[in-house]
Amino acid sequence: MTHTVATVITYRMKMIMLIAVLLLFSSVRLANGQEKRSLAALRMDDEITIDGVLDERAWEGADAATDFIIYSPYNGVSSRFMTEVRVLYDDDALYVGAMMYDDHPDSIFFELGQRDAGDINADHFYVEISPFNDGLNGEMFKVSASNVQIDNKLTSGDSWEHRDTWDAVWNSRTHIGDDGWSAEFMIPYSALRFSKSANQVWGINFWREVRRIRETSSWNFVTREFGGTIAHLGELTGITDIKPPLRLSLVPYVSGYLEHGSEQLGVSTTYNGGLDLKLGLSKSFTLDATLIPDFGQVQSDDRILNLTPYEVKYNEKRPFFMEGTELFNRGDIFYSRRIGGTPHLVSDVHDMADPGEIFTNNPAEVSLLNATKVSGRTHGGLGVGLFNAVTSGMYAELRDTVTGATRRIMTEPLTNYNMLVIDQTLNNDSYVSLANTNVIRAAEKDEHFYTANVTAIEALLKTRNRIYSASAAAALSQKYYSGTDPGLGHSVSLNIGKTGGKFRTDYDFSVVSDNYDPNDMGYLRRNNELEHSLDFSYNTYEPVGSIMTTRSSVDLNYDQLYKPRAFTSASVRLSEMIILMNYWSLSVDMQFTPWGEDDYFEPRARDMSKFYHRPAAFEAGFRGDTDKSKKLYAELQAGYYRAWSEYSQHGFAWSLQAEYKVNRRFSFDYSLSMEKMFNDIGYVMTNPADMTIFGRRDIKTVTNTVSGAFIFSANSYLTLRGRHYWSGADYDKSYFELLDDGSLRELLTPGIIPNIDVNTNFLNVDVVYTWRFAPGSELSLVWKNAIYSEGNLIVSDALSNFTEMLSMPQTNSLSLKILYYLDYQNFRKLFSTR
Would you state the torsion angle of the CA atoms of residues 166, 167, 169, 173, taken in this order, to the nearest 10 degrees? Predict the structure, then answer.
């Protein structure tokens, strides 16, 4: 890339940005002016039975919320299904009773599913509650016609979605009758946070889903053009003289494991016990703690073969780190998988062994001793989050094969992880926040370990109609080694645009310095970047003919290296998405990188002194799926890649997923995906003469996944998931020297290069039986099977590869875990009646 071309590109980008600003302020659309609806709750004196039948007198005296308005597909149109919702309360709980009338009760969908399952094929009713009525934070309690519970925390946002990382303890029952179906909720105040005001005004909204026609409607109108659902709540009045209860609960657990590896004699057994504690420190703040946690039953990671210079990011699946962590996402500097992750020196320790020594033990995972988090938000909108976790020191054990002497080498010291978040909500779903993470390792005099600190600040401002917004963020990272000055790094980002309405556009700028590193407690794929992006999109929300909604977008990107300042890539991305009235969806996207990419990371040069010039390329993708409410659901994805180079680099990928609902209790899912890259060019090694060597390879990846669930009841179910991942990189023995201008020169005599072909298999099977035998209490029985194999012999035949993989060492484990929920309020009521 010459200086002249780079100058032209920069000029064009500035012109495009100027046009965007003109477009941004040439289109103004006011928000929907509909007033909030209001409903009065009724205090009751007599107890009611939560059975799903609204036959108590108290329900008759309460006001009803009616006249629901469609959210989807015809946003703003009155629903033809009559719904009545009433709210009662007493000193201990809020009660919600809903009657969903239906002229065809035999057509009500009532599939069973797991608790918190995201897409049960059933009719649903749910309530969104914001006790502080701030339009920013709240809770959602949802139940299917088959009484499967779903609960989530709500936060402000531009997408209509809920978080599935929070589990509350509440009671519900449903009933299907001649006039439709009904639901009763009992939500204890211990599941909510509210002020001590004598007269309460809560934000509230009620929702109904009619699955057979895919209609979703709400009591208070919610527009699809801007804002999250929590920004469109009505009001619940009439609640007086209630007091926030002492929120104290304990969840002790015991667990036992039987484990057998094919390379070990006999079966190993382990037993664990621990405790989860939840304590309300005030009306607004809650302390959550876990002591000696056991996460051995969480679903296995979907591991992959990684040929890139970047770390693979895996999803968090441990319940403690998934629940109540909304505040800790501020600043984008917290990645909970760092806690209890891989020891720093688990690989480097092999270079520390003396001749004649062998490793007898080298743990690949750090043990978590305890973790605590305190979070909450005041009535004035000030949110505070505190997090602390302690992991134990880890050691590799070695034995001298001649003398028999043993010794240990520390691979990870005792470590303390801390995070503080302060977040102030502002008007119009806006906020400003400050976050800090600190990692202290108890090995100050060891040159391999250090203390790390990251501080971030971010702010989001929206106009009153939520159509326009601007956000900014900045972060500073510091590393403190023994006897040295701290290594400082920074990142800054800015976004401004029209983010609501049909036409949307925004400009995004970010800069990440070459030594910014939040990865001791966060995740950053790569640093040393300077990026500009400009996005345009047009959305339709009103159905036209057979089309329900559409989204068309154009994204322009221009990227540079931060240091040394150099062009890296420029691209244009076009995409189109259509959802049809039959709930089939189609999407296509295309991306062009007309000037290629100067990749400074693939050569693995820490000083960024080398780069590989990737040629101009084109990518295209397609995705289509059918209606998930039908017995058979299918999804197809396909992609194609082509680079214009002398090496004829090209590839394709496709995947097919099918889900079949046998009946309301049993369903299974199968997916198959394949990806092939031909003549891919990638890093091989840097030889002793500091020559960077690349190789040409064909990469093939095949993934098979099967899953199923048999639901005995809303609180008892059996699930299975099996995944086989097979990937190989076959080098064609053509090797190249990376030159200073980013091009390659073929090596006719490459010297001694070891066989770097790789054939990798991961097989994981997880079978889980879950029984929720009491509110908040659970028994789980889990069987896991795991096989990992990697070799240098490429196997092209799938059956031969699978057969050979089954002969490799494998691990089987069977575990039983029982946890029991103990709530102070239940004990108080029990003893008060005696």
Answer: 110
